[in-house]
Design a protein that fits this description.
Blueprint: E1 7-11, E2 14-18, H1 23-29, E3 48-54, E4 57-64, H2 75-78, E5 88-93, H3 95-101, H4 120-128, E6 134-141, E7 149-159, E8 162-173
Parallel strand pairs: 1-3
Antiparallel strand pairs: 1-2, 3-4, 5-6, 6-7, 7-8
């Protein structure tokens, strides 16, 4: 048996080998695996994933692979809408859970006592866009292309095994050296 190329994990400034394949579950759930080109018997899965641990979460941040049509595999091609790192889908949720969790209770009545307060109209449009073949998920993600944003979270719609669209409900800002 040929030794296999490992996934790459970046943690606390170190480059480590990861002898597990976190994407295998994702590919098995989404149906047929992407049509990757085999380049070596040392990599039967036909790709090398690049990962990082940040804020105590594992993120998929890159991939080294080629499709059989000779185009490069990118995060965007595997996970549309996520070009720098992929969000973590924390758990599947219901509309009722989301509305109960995000119900604003302002004793001063400066914010309406409705889900997401002043952002309720955005939530209603997002909620009303859900189709029968889609599921609603709570997500967390780091998005460094947004200056000063360390992390964000919210709700994502999953369709055909992929994140189709999302609504952000919170951010963790990084200001200078302090969080």
């Amino acid at each position: 048996m040929t030794a296999q190329v490992t996934e790459v994990l970046h943690y606390k400034g170190e480059r480590l080998s990861m002898r597990t394949e976190p994407l295998s579950d994702y590919f098995s759930q989404m149906g047929p695996s992407p049509d990757f080109q085999r380049s070596s018997s040392a990599c039967w899965r036909c790709y090398v994933g690049k990962w990082e641990i940040l804020l105590d979460r594992l993120y998929f941040v890159g991939v080294s692979a080629t499709y059989t049509d000779c185009t490069s595999v990118t995060l965007e091609s595997l996970f549309p809408g996520f070009t720098d790192r992929v969000c973590t889908l924390v758990r599947q949720v219901t509309i009722e859970e989301v509305e109960r969790t995000n119900l604003i209770q302002d004793p001063m009545e400066a914010v309406p006592n409705i889900p997401f307060g002043h952002c309720n109209a955005r939530w209603v449009v997002f909620k009303d866009s859900l189709q029968e073949n889609e599921t609603l998920w709570e997500f967390e993600s780091t998005r460094f292309e947004l200056k000063g944003v360390q992390a964000m979270w919210g709700y994502a719609v999953k369709r055909d095994g992929r994140v189709d669209r999302f609504m952000t409900s919170g951010w963790k800002l990084k200001i200078g050296m302090f969080e």
